[in-house]
Amino acid sequence: MRGGTSKGAYFLAADLPADPDVRDELLLRVMGSPDERQIDGLGGAHPLTSKVAVVSPSSAPGADVDYLFLQVAVDRAEVSGRQNCGNILAGVGPFAVERGLVPAGEDATSVRIRMVNSGDLATATFPTPGGRVDYTGEARISGVPGTAAAVVLEFPAGAGKLLPTGNARDVIDGIPVTCVDNGMPTVLIAAGELKVTGYETPKDLEDDLALAERLREIRLAAGRLMGLGDVSDTTVPKLTLLAPPREGGAICTRTFIPVRCHTSIGVLGAAGVAAGLRIDGGVGAEPAELSPDSDRIRIEHPTGFLDIESSLGTTPDGLPRARRTAVVRTARKIFDGTVFPRAAARPRGGHR
């Protein structure tokens, strides 16, 4: 399925091995990793198209299904469950209805989803005329050709800290940053602080080796500050460079995931950016152009924009907290069938 601006393989948990190590080894073979082309599997040779959703009925209060997101590395034998994916999340509700985990409504269906990676909740609402998922519609999102049915994703206020470090602004290696977690640990940095404009193409930014090394150092330090420990082998926190908007939005962004530059922006990363722009004293407050009369924030990215509704409140001790986050995505079923993974590697010295 395509979910938002990502693409991945969606599985029922019952159809995969229960042992995580055995499951992950199978998924590497299913997706064709490690191989930069993923020529022997379903993967699309990019982190945005090498993703997996594992879905099952949920026993958690307030949830219909559990959704485990797994990022399958392209060029390494690595499967990570350290982060959520809000784009793949867009396909979870329709998948749950297609697989009979949730009954469809006559006009529309809302599926309450527990994101296993973090424990956070989301509700996906999408059209089901006549009790069947309808992927056709007029909603258009940047980075995806054509139109499709709208999938409205709404996130309740999380229980965790919006500012994991307790500060609206920290300084790492002389660079001011704002560390936020609104469903995805994210580090906001003014692009100009790193001697780039923030309007470069993803390829140009990826080819800047000095920038890559600087971002790596900032990410490792931010991980420790945010209580994530050693993040050298993980994909979070994400780093987002901020620049003043150029196309009528609130901010222009370039996001790293964590080495490749995103061709758009992830849903949960955008949720972090949107909340971060509203934090007094944060690095996003100055370049952002926000409407005082609307919760809607248009975030510009390399292939267009993402609209997100975000509002903040305060905790009893006066710290900012996320109050509401909602975004419109689309999803589409691409195929339904049986995948034939390549054979498992034989132990050295084994019989052929």
UniProtKB/TrEMBL annotation:
Its EC number is 5.3.2.8. It holds the Pfam family PrpF. The keyword Ribosomal protein does not apply. Keywords: Isomerase. GO terms for molecular function: isomerase activity. Gene3D superfamilies: Diaminopimelate Epimerase, Chain A, domain 1. InterPro entries: OMA_tautomer-like, PrpF-like. NCBIfam families: OMA_tautomer. PANTHER family: ACONITATE ISOMERASE-RELATED, ISOMERASE YBHH-RELATED. Belongs to the PrpF family. This is 4-oxalomesaconate tautomerase. The lineage of its organism: Bacteria, Bacillati, Actinomycetota, Actinomycetes, Kitasatosporales.
